[in-house]
Design brief:
This protein has 14 helices and 6 strands. With 303 residues, it is of the alpha/beta class.
């Protein structure tokens, strides 16, 4: 049985906390929001004649298709035995919601089917999820005054939240990158990295790399200067044992193992926009290991 949407309110409360640390702090999150939901965040009031059906496809494709079928049905829609009501399962019981007063007793006919389609779409996009959307919106507006974003369109607000869908500017990322653990801007491994990103990776690879280190495949709306925390590359040893054992014995073992084939993959801490990059011995090795890591999408697990 499908989980009733009422029980998902806690998920929306968690999502509102995710968004609280987002647009004003330079943090982008890979959360695509439906246009109708963005309109709700912008407090856009629609007229009674607004076509909610157009936005329903971004929320529930199956319901959208069903309502479109009813809207354009060539036969007698009365034969479908529909009324101005909708049933859903809740805690093992069937709950009926009336789209209008007395809707359970009002059949859908050729003359009123457009009203039915409109009211059903409104119910799905607004009435049914009102508690969830209100909870999310409350958290969002507690961080950002609605008057600050009212000039944006839903599409522009999505870019503010999740970054812009543009080609990643490697030089811009490089300009605002920090280094740690012995790496610096002119370290050979760092030079190899920028060369690989710029000249050997394609646009999709660069997007996967950015998602690997920041959890979002798109750059901040105003460039990497506004990425917070700033992107940082930290040097790590090429094997886990070398990285963890800092005792004299561990260092001696590491000395004798230095000629072994390095196997460690790059890893990341996306909360800190941190790339943990082993001190590879060649550009090709760096490219191979980095490509494998970003395609496996397992940076955090390898940390």
């Amino acid at each position: 049985m499908q989980e009733p949407i009422h029980d998902l309110r806690c998920d929306f409360l968690c999502l509102q906390d995710t968004q609280r640390a987002n647009p004003l702090e330079g943090i982008v999150v890979d959360i695509p929001l439906a246009p109708f939901f963005l309109s709700h965040l912008l407090k856009r009031n629609h007229s009674a004649y607004y076509n909610y059906l157009d936005e329903l496809s971004s929320f529930d494709e199956q319901i959208y298709s069903s309502l479109n079928f009813i809207k354009h049905y060539d036969g007698d829609v009365t034969d479908l035995c529909l009324t101005f009501s909708v049933d859903e399962e809740y805690l093992g019981k069937r709950v009926t919601h009336e789209l209008i007063d007395g809707g359970c007793a009002i059949p859908v006919t050729p003359s009123n089917r457009l009203s039915y389609v409109h009211r059903m779409a409104l119910f799905k996009l607004s009435t049914q999820i009102k508690k969830q959307t209100d909870a999310f919106t409350k958290g969002f507006h507690s961080l950002i005054d609605p008057s600050f974003i009212e000039i944006f369109s839903p599409e522009e607000l999505q870019k503010l939240i999740s970054g812009d869908e543009v080609e990643i500017d490697v030089e811009d990322l490089r300009k605002y990158t920090h280094y740690a653990g012995g790496y610096h801007a002119n370290h050979k491994v760092i030079l190899w990295l920028w060369d690989v990103l710029k000249n050997h990776f394609n646009a999709d690879d660069r997007g996967n790399f950015l998602k690997f280190v920041t959890s979002c495949s798109r750059p901040p709306l105003l460039g990497f200067k506004h990425l917070h925390p700033p992107f940082t590359i930290r040097c790590v040893q090429m094997t886990h044992s070398e990285d963890r054992d800092e005792s004299v014995t561990g260092m001696i073992k590491g000395f004798f193992k230095r000629h072994q084939q390095p196997h460690r993959l790059p890893s990341s801490s996306t909360c800190f926009n941190l790339l943990k990059l082993p001190n590879y011995t060649s550009r090709n090795m760096l490219k191979e290991k980095l490509m494998y890591a970003i395609k496996a999408n397992c940076g955090f697990e390898l940390s």
